[in-house]
Amino acid sequence: xxxxxxxxxxxxxxxxxxxxxxxxxxxxxxxxxxxxxxxxxxxxxxxxxxxxxxxxxxxxxxxxxxxxxxxxxxxxxxxxxxxxxxxxxxxxxxxx
Length: 96
Known about the structure:
96 residues
């Protein structure tokens, strides 16, 4: 399985495994997590399948709240994979 960036998806990626297992433990669907967190269900699915490897800090904070986990716990389990700086999206027509 390949994701948009062309690399092979890894559902065993620590962060993917943590999120997938915790959602299952809580008996939540992707849509329920979306409703509770405001994070798009397609993006949650990408995270759980190892397709999105560097989620932003605000995204992980919202998911951690829903899953009843601390960011410290997630970062420790995931090997410090959280990006503390929110990503800045490039604006159309703006040169960087």
